[in-house]
Amino acid sequence: MSSSPAVSPPSTSIRASVVVPVFRPGAAFDELIASLDRQTLDHGRFEVLLCDDGSGEETAARLVEIARDRPYVRVAYLPHSGWPGTPRNHGIDDARGTYIQFVDQDDWLYDGALEALCDYADEHASDVVVGREVGIGRRLPSRIFRRDIPRARLGEDPLLEMLTPHKMFRTSFLREKRIRFPDGKVRLEDHLFVMRAYFEASTISILASRPCYAWVKHAGSASSSRIEPETYFPHLEAVLDLVERYTEPGRLRDRLLRHWFRGKILKRVSGKKYAGYPEEYRQRLLDVVIPLARRRFGPGVDGGLAFPNRIRAALLRADRRADLLTFARFEAELTCRAVVTSARWSRGGGLYLTVDVSITRDGQDALEFEPGTGVMTSLPIAMDGLPTGLLEAKREMSNDHVELVWRDKAAAIERRVANLHPRSLDSLRIAIDPLKVFRPDDESRGAKLFVTVRRAGWTFDVPLRADAATLAAAGRSPLLAGRTCTPVAGRGGAVELRRQYPGGRLKDLAGRAVRRVRSGSRTK
C-alpha cells in the first residue's frame, strides 16, 4: 500500500475497505485479525488497510507477517503523528471499496458484520450506517440500538448516543464532501468527523438487529484517563462551533448542544466521580467549565435537561462550588435495591414476581417530594438566589418507570421483560413469560435479571436480588412455560433465570403452539 496522498478510485468489485489505524498493537490485535479472517463476505470483496502510525521495526515486521498470506490486507507505513486521525485519513484516500468501515486496533468485528452492513447500505442508499456496537468490559447506550432505523433523523432519533467512528461510510460521500479527521492530536476528533458526516449525509441508517462491532475496554485506555481541563475544553468548543455552523438558533440546535452540555460538562461535576476528585483538580475543572457553561449554553438548552441536571446547571452558573460538591456527595450516597419478596408460577406458563424497590441514603428514603406539586423536600441544599421552581420535578415524575431487563452479557443480548409506571415502588407485580424472554432460536441457558429505575430524572440500574428460599417457593415451571425454567439466586443474591437447554425442545414447541392457539382465539 502506497504512502502517497493520491486518492485511489473505488473498485466495482471491492465492497468494503476496513481502515485500521495502527500503533504498536498488543495481543488484542490478533483477535481483530482473526475476526476479519472469519468475515462471511467473500475475501475478494473486501480489503483491510492497516495504516501504521510510525510504530517502528517490530510492528512493521508483525504487519508484514500478517499480510504475507492474506492478499486482502494492505499495509501503509506512515510518519508518526501521535493520533489516529492522520492514519484514518490515509485510509480514506487509499480505499478501493464502495464503503469504508473504521475499526480500532483493540476491537473486532462480528463474523457477518461487513456483509450485513454493506447489504443494509445498498438497500437504503445510506451514506452512513451505524452498526450495532457491543461493549466488551464497558456499558454502552442502548436506546440507539433498540430497532433498525433505515432513515434516522438527527435531533429526533438517538444518533448522538454513539459518536464513535466505528461506522460504515460511503467512500464517495466522504471524498465528495471532503470529510476528514483533523490531523495531529485533537481531542473529540471522532465527534468532529461523525457530526460533519451526519450533517452532510442524505441518508443515515441504524442497523440494530444484529451485533456488528465489539468495542473492547482495556486497562489504561485514553477514554478511562482523567482529562486536563485547560486543554480538553477548547476541543469541545470546536465541536460546538461545528454544530452552530450547521444549525440555526432554535429547537434543533438546543437539542444538539444539550448532548455535550450533559455528557461533557454536567456529567463531570456529578456523583461519585466528581466527589472523589482532589480539591485542586475540582477547582481547575470549575475554573474552565463555569465560564464555558455561561457562554455557550442558554435557557433553551436547560429546558430539556432532566431535574437533577437542571439543579446542577443552575449551581454551576451561579458558581456555587460548595453546593455542587454537596449535591455530588448526595447523589454518590444514593443506594437503590430491588428485592423479590414472593415468586410463583401460573398454570399458563408465567412467572409472577413481587418486587420491592427502594432508593435510600443513610438508611432513609432519599427522594421525597410534596404530593401534588412534585417539589423535592429531601435535598440538603438551600435554593435561595437560584431560579424559582428549580426543585419542581413533576414533569420528570410523570415519566417515572421501572423496567425488568434480561441481560446475557456473553451473547451481547439485552431484552426488556417488563415496563411498569407505578405510583409506588413497593410491592411491584412483574410477570415474566419465558417463551418471550427466550426466543425460538435462542441457545442461551440463562442470564441475570436487572432492574432499571427511573425516578424524578435519576436512573439506577441494579441487579434484581432475592434469597434462595423465596425463589424456591415458586416450584417447578409448568408445561406451558416451555423448556424447564428456574429462577435462581446466584452470587450475592443476584437473580438468574436459567433454563434447560438443549433438552426440552418438545416442551418448548408445545408451549408455543398453545400460545398461538390462544392468540388466534382472542383475535376472532
List the helices and strands and how they pair.
Layout: E1 16-22, H1 28-37, E2 46-53, H2 57-68, E3 73-78, H3 85-94, E4 99-102, E5 108-109, H4 113-124, E6 128-136, E7 168-170, H5 171-176, H6 189-200, E8 204-216, H7 229-246, H8 251-265, H9 271-276, H10 279-296, H11 299-303, H12 307-317, H13 321-332, E9 335-345, E10 351-361, E11 364-365, H14 394-397, E12 401-408, E13 413-420, E14 428-432, H15 434-437, E15 446-455, E16 458-465, H16 468-472, E17 485-489, E18 495-499, H17 505-523
Parallel strand pairs: 1-2, 1-4, 2-3, 6-8, 9-16
Antiparallel strand pairs: 4-7, 5-8, 6-7, 9-10, 10-11, 10-14, 12-13, 12-15, 15-16, 15-18, 17-18
Helix pairs in contact: 6-7, 7-8, 7-10
What does this structure look like?
Helices cover 34% and strands 24% of the residues. With 524 residues, the protein is an alpha+beta fold. The strands form two sheets. Strands 9, 10, 11, 12, 13, 14, 15, 16, 17 and 18 form a ten-stranded mixed β-sheet that branches. Strand 12 and strand 13 (413-420) form a beta hairpin. The mean pLDDT is 92.
The rounded distance between the terminal residues' Cα atoms is: 65 Å
Q: Beta-strand level of the residues, as a percent range?
A: 15-25%
What is the number of strand segments?
18
What is the gyration radius calculated from CA atoms?
26 Å
- Give the quaternary arrangement of the chains: single chain
User: Portion of residues in helices?
Assistant: 25-40%
Low-confidence runs of at least 5 consecutive residues: none
Class derived from helix and strand content: alpha+beta
What general form does the structure show?
globular
Described by strand count, sense and barrel closure, the largest sheet is:
10 strands, mixed
Total of DSSP H or I helical runs spanning 4+ residues: 17
Roughly what is the average pLDDT, rounded to an integer?
92
